[in-house]
Amino acid sequence: MNLQHQPQNGVVLPPLSSFVCDWEQDEPFSEEDLRAIEAIESRFYNNKRPFSDSSAAKDDADDASPDNSARRSHRRRRLPRSLVALQHPNAHSLSPCQGYSRMRLPVIKFAGQIMYSRTFADVEKSAEKLLKILEEKKRQMVQIPLGFDIEWKPSFRSGVPPGKVAVMQICHGTSHCHVLHLIHSGIPKNLQILLEDPLILKVGAGIRGDAAKVFRDYKISVKGLEDLSFHANRKLGGSPNQWGLASLAEKLLSKQLKKPNKIRLGNWETPVLSKEQLQYAATDAFASWHLFQAIKDLPEAQVESTDKSGKVEDVPQQ
Are 33 and 7 contacting, i.e. CB atoms less than 8 angstroms apart? Predict the structure, then answer.
């Protein structure tokens, strides 16, 4: 909803841009809405301040004053701070009700086609398609970043290591995302070529850790890494933060990236991934790609940096 300064019975409302809610877009507040908001705000403030007959009489006298009539009418139409705060792109950092504002953010979700491959032949075909797309873009002098992420089966027992990388997801835009079930297929040679090519950008949050995990499990060194947390800090300035995908999505996209533990910590070695697992995996890779585009479009922060490259060092052979 994006309300401009529209007069309502002669009263000008403050703008409420980027207000995240379930109401129909561009639907103005009705008089009934305003009265409900006024009643809530009135009860809140009346309950907080001491009340006495003398103060009530004074308020009644003040309200009866002609000079205060217009001001009181305008005050009735002012939105509570809890609602006004939500018009800010980073509403969760302004409102004291952080859980509420985060809950009201729209959910980021990959809406394109999920290409699921679980056999060696299928993964090989997916890698071939990706290489052809990248080669075509290279001829057009266009560099495509690949949203990159991995999943594995966690261990909840002391002394038992987590499983190997079970799933690798690669996204190169809004239309297609490849989810590769490596625990059943292994890594074909053409996928290894793609991963080890330093000219093919792989972007993600904490991507160096993901690359190290791939090397430990498959002895393949993933190159061409671009860490989203590093780039966000360089563009945003200020004290460096260790950004994750979810926090970056809130900060830069004003969207919520859901990370339900039931899926995140689930069995990624299952014979066939569920629809929920496929959607989770594809959305993570898509969020990495999307955030890279958003960070790239931000202006440079006016701060000095000792590292100008912006690249994560390739994971060394161990």
Answer: no
Q: Supply the pLDDT for residue 136.
A: 87
Instruction: Please give the sequence-ordered ranges of beta strands (E in DSSP) within the chain, or none if there are none.
Output: 7-8, 11-12, 113-117, 146-152, 165-171, 176-180, 202-204, 225-227
CA 225, 229, 235, 238 torsion: positive or negative? negative
Helix axes 189-196, 120-139, angle to 10 degrees: 40
What pLDDT score does 238 carry? 74
DSSP class of 315: P
Instruction: State CA 132 to chain mean position distance.
Output: 29
Task: Provide the 8-state DSSP code for 193.
Answer: H
In the prediction, which pLDDT does 187 show? 97
Residues composing the chain: 318
Phi, psi of 199 (to 5 degrees): -85, -10
Sites in the chain below the pLDDT cut of 70: 1-37, 40-103, 302-318
pTM of the shown model: 0.64
Contact predicate 243/229, CB 8 Å: yes
Predicted local confidence at residue 42, as pLDDT: 67
Q: What is the pLDDT of residue 52?
A: 47
d(CA 215, CA 223): 11
Half-sphere exposure of 198 (CA within 13 A, CB side): 6
pLDDT of residue 40: 66
For the chain, give every residue range classified as CATH 3.30.420.10.
113-296
H or E stretch at 135: helix 120-139
* Reported CATH class of domain 113-296: alpha beta
CB atoms within 10 A of CB 205: 24
**Residue 242's pLDDT is what?**
83
Distance (Å, rounded) from C-alpha 123 to C-alpha 179? 9
